[in-house]
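worker-03 picked up job from queue 'complexes'. Input manifest follows; two sequence lines, order preserved.
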Amino acid sequence: MARSRVPTLPKLYDYVLSDACYKVRLLLSLLGVPYTSVAVDFFPGREPEGEAFRRINPEGDLPVLEDDGVVLRDAQAILVHLARKHDANWLPPGNRWLDFAGADMAALSQARLVSLLGLPGDLATLRKAGRRALRDLEDHIGDRQIAGFDWVETDRATIADIGLFPHVALSHDAGIGLEDYPALNLWQRRVRKLPRFVGMPGIPDYF
Amino acid sequence: MTLTPDQAALDQWYVLGALRDFPSGKTRSTRLLGGDIAVTRRDDGIEVVGEGRALPVRTNYDHLWTTFGTPARDLFSLPEAAEPDRRWIHCGGVHVRASGLRLIENFLDLAHFPYVHTDILGSEEKPEVAKYEVEQRRDVDELWATKCEFFQPKAAAASDEGQISQYMYRVVSPFNVMLYKTPPTAPNRWDVIALFVHPLDEIESVAHPFMLVIDDTSSDAEIIQFQQMIFLQDKIVLENQRPLLLPLQPGRETPTRADLSSVLYRRWLKEKALTFGTEPRTDLA
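worker-03 finished. Artifact:
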């Protein structure tokens, strides 16, 4: 007997203000993949740190994507999974800048939570590390432009660009303006022009 | 920055946060009107010390309130807080680099819905602000805007479709405001959405959105995210508004018919001679 298979949509445990969740929402939109989402009270409820949510993700963190019966954690890992599954053109030839999005950009992410939501943290130190990360990316993209490339890893947009974009576009939430980063400004305009681009609160669709 | 000398600003009640933001046995430091504040929660109560002296404390509506001065009235009334079927939702304090008065004024504004909250609280096809009424209720010293109507594609977390929302606005003090709005699920009642503004100094504020809603369908997380999404869309505009401080001088900003509530709000601030968070005037002797 043939079993009818009801396709289940990927399920994103989501927080609307999270830069990491936005990476996933943005790629899902660019890929044109429908999904369902579950709102998680990251702030003020701190729900991810609670016992119930830790059964979904022991790290107590967002985003989490349930897809094909697999539970994926960490935004960068989710981006790789989605690109592999739906369109390998989004995979970068190397991991350097995708790793950078997860590691070096974490300071900006933290600075934003301290500055925006008043969560604990040393804002001056975080901002300093965040500016350093923006400077490194600015220099890299500037070099790429001189070499004739628009994107961080290759001649097309990849998940490395998607993983980096939210941190750059939301830096004003951390109290860091982009006046000193002209290459980043041009690059983020290119990201915004990608077909099916979506913004988030703090990243208006108009620009 | 030091504590403001503005007596009109000092003589008001201010929110310092939701009560649950102050865990027992701990002291938390913050600022209010440029002055330093320390809040200590003990099992037997809560103490607020500002500029070295104990300040008055109120704990109404699940929030902590204080004042540096002598308010003419006790804290405002919120009768809906006594209705048992309402859900109390704390949306969390969000920091905004803007004058608290700008936050209140933005909250009162209907005209920005289609452009800042596109396809949520307004639609670019229907940007018109219909005529509404404003009044200053002198007995309670509150401002009201009534008979406000606006077409909203997604009026609330529980909305499935667009609706013409009815609104009333109520400004209970210069930094505290609430709106009453028809909920998608109970058209004969009013949801209450309050915005309590904690001004750290003239150009930095913490906004505490607080809701008393009738909604059987949405989870707390969904309602909070909806409200935070709206507020963060406003934040980017608020932080880029110039002048940074609210101008009260005639001619500095030109209101239109849709800005009636803002006109009344500014007139009321002038009447109170409140200057904290406002642009220095050059037209006065």
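worker-03 released lock.
Helices of chain A lie at 19-31, 51-54, 75-86, 96-102, 106-117, 123-146, 159-169, 182-192.
The radius of gyration of chain A is 17 Å.
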